[in-house]
Amino acid sequence: MTVVYYSSSSNYTHAFAQKLRAAGQHCVRLPLLTKDDTLLMEEPFVLITPTYGAGPRRGAVPKQVIKFLNVPQNRELLCGVIGAGNTNFGETYCQAAHIVAQKCQVPLLYRFELLGLPEDVRNVNEGLNRLWKQKLQRRA
Length: 140
Hints:
- The chain is of the alpha/beta class.
- It has a five-stranded parallel beta sheet with strand order 2-1-3-4-5, with helices on both faces.
- This is Protein NrdI.
């Protein structure tokens, strides 16, 4: 089971993913540029996405995430979404995760701000471990 994430050159989401990796999660980063090939997933995964854009719902989902989720096989294997954001943006906080969850009909599992706090890493890691265990039990 894998955590797929997009992080811009600011590396906020990357820093959070590195903390998850240190906690034992397998994390894979989406390409930074849309001209690069995207990933093709072969196992269930959870997506971590930051929010971008100039206004509510406008450009909130990074283009790299859209390109990745436009691959039908990737959408089929998506188990849930985690949002990264900044509470200074008010009601658009983690808007990309809400949009992806709604469009792909998967749960929004968690939201964290900026680099995430140690408790965010702990909560996400524990939640992912429970999710992976449930997925494995259903396969058995």
